[in-house]
Amino acid sequence: ARLVVLVSGSGTNLQALLDACADPSYGARVVAVGADRDGIEGLVRADRAGVPTFVARVDDYTSREHWDRAIADKVGAFEPDLVVSAGFMKLLAPDFLARFLTLNTHPALCPAFPGMHGPRDALEHGVKVTGATLFVVDDGVDTGPIVAQVPVEVAEDDDVTSLHERIKTAERAMLVDSVGRIAREGIAVEGRRVRIGAGAR
Ligand code: GRF
């Protein structure tokens, strides 16, 4: 399966996918990495792995709609089977999502604590268990059909950073496992129910 990965930051999820894809039996390969900004570690990781990159900065387009079309065209040029939004900080337009099956990770157990501050909100709420969610992106914020989830216990002495780091470790393993299974076995999305396997796609 051909993967295009979109990043805006450190790209540790991207790195986990690049590492997994080094084994041909994994069944997927990162054919391109896209970003909405320059100078980020995610792009350096792609360069180091010899993967082509592209950047589409919203400010370089006359309107958000032009950017929406540009990012779709840039991604489409690589003919992906799957797009992975890995810490990508822009919402993708409905046309983009209709064209590309797009997965995203969220550092909380959806539908709890959507948005930019999953680990902080979980700590503030005082939950004892939080985690990470892999989901199919839809037009909401962290609302799409759930592909996989992994629980992470909140420690008494956790702060936002320590909790987020532990979530990210679990999140990367979940992402690598699920993307590999999807690449090898397919995925079917029926309403809110997601099934991996049975040659679904
Ligand atoms: C991850 O925690 C992801 O869930 C969130 O942003 C973080 C991205 O980290 N959306 P990285 O850029 O992959 O290191």
From TrEMBL:
Enzyme Commission number(s) from the entry: 2.1.2.2
Q: Which Pfam families match?
A: Formyl_trans_N (PF00551)
Where does the entry annotate site (Raises pKa of active site His)? 142
Recorded GO MF terms: phosphoribosylglycinamide formyltransferase activity
Sites where the protein binds N(1)-(5-phospho-beta-D-ribosyl)glycinamide: 11-13
UniProt KW Transferase keyword? yes
Which CDD domains does this chain map to? FMT_core_GART
Q: Which residues form the Formyl transferase N-terminal domain?
A: 2-178
From the UniProt record, list the reaction(s) this protein catalyses: N(1)-(5-phospho-beta-D-ribosyl)glycinamide + (6R)-10-formyltetrahydrofolate = N(2)-formyl-N(1)-(5-phospho-beta-D-ribosyl)glycinamide + (6S)-5,6,7,8-tetrahydrofolate + H(+)
Q: What are the entry keywords?
A: Purine biosynthesis, Transferase
Q: Which chain regions cross the lipid bilayer?
A: none
Similarity-based family: Belongs to the GART family.
| Function, as annotated | Catalyzes the transfer of a formyl group from 10-formyltetrahydrofolate to 5-phospho-ribosyl-glycinamide (GAR), producing 5-phospho-ribosyl-N-formylglycinamide (FGAR) and tetrahydrofolate.
Q: What is this protein called?
A: Phosphoribosylglycinamide formyltransferase
At the highest ranks, the source species' classification is: Bacteria, Bacillati, Actinomycetota, Actinomycetes, Propionibacteriales
